[in-house]
Amino acid sequence: MKTPAPHPDTHRTQPADVCVPVTGRSQRVRVTDPKVFGRVAVLMGGWSSERQVSLWSGQGVADALRSRGVDVVAIDATPDNVLQLKAQGIDRVFNVLHGTGGEDGTLQAVLELQGIPYTGSGVLASALAMDKLRTKRLWSAEGLPTPDYLWARSRADLDEAVRRFGYPLIVKPSAEGSSVGVSKVKSADQLDAAWQLARGSRGDGVVIAERFVAGGAYGHEFTCAIVDGEALPLIRIEPDGEFYDYHAKYLSDATCYHCPSGLDATLEQKIQAICLRAFECVGARGWGRVDFMLDAHGQAWLIELNLVPGMTSHSLVPMAAAARGMDYASLCWAILETTLAPIAEHGR
């Protein structure tokens, strides 16, 4: 991890790495014997636009759990084979099936019906978090900071968004992950392409236009990983390009990540508490990631919630866990331990 260069900060009183952990509700049942988990299916791949990222994530998780002695079956998920997991002798699931099907409550419902414990959040929280529009509505109702937005039901609504928010602004789909379909629009001649991209290949996706948050001395793109009720150290992101898009996330070696983030310790703890509240207010559990922007005044603005985050070599949850002293295999083990809670407790 790249250590950030010093930034002017007259309010810094202590280094970020002495922050007291911000914690919520723990769910883990600590074990040392891999046999306790039984036969574990790592679900990956799938049928969403994030299929390749999921395959990368799943291979990493499967290898890590095997290295700790867990009986792992790596499964490239299809709508058919996820219905047969119980019949195949699967005892629990580590879900890294990103996007549609695996992250939106569909898989969670299938696993609930089969009585199979699984990593991550339940049906309702998963469905809410996958829908960025409704997540923002919930956060706003709870008094949590999220950038002003407009539900663009037609191309003409983007012109209204420009009148409200000015340039640049963000145009994105409500129900995609990994920054698929997201555009930073800086001029009128980019609106048509952004509209088409956000609506997806079928041309029927829900589109959000969002006020762009300009950063200050620290930069403005950050994320907060959450594992078992603990907000891990914040990560500051310097993307390779205009913003943290798919290329910058998964393909570029020029994107820089700073953990510790370089923020004042008190500010970091305040933001961690906001992110933990944003995570819990949708009913999320187990693990996940909250992405936010930081403006020039040090105000955090919640962008989106990821309840099946990436676990690739470029991914942010493993990076934050490492800053907390947890290696990749230990992180995978800890996430799997959350499935040992009673299923009635875990899945709702």
UniProtKB/TrEMBL annotation:
Keyword Metal-binding: yes
The protein's name: D-alanine--D-alanine ligase
Membrane spanning stretches: none
Cofactor: Mg(2+); Mn(2+)
Pathway in which this enzyme or protein is active: Cell wall biogenesis; peptidoglycan biosynthesis
Binding sites annotated in the UniProt record for Mg(2+) 2: E304, N306
Annotated organism of origin: Fontimonas thermophila
Gene Ontology molecular function terms on file: ATP binding; D-alanine-D-alanine ligase activity; metal ion binding
Cell compartment(s), UniProt: Cytoplasm
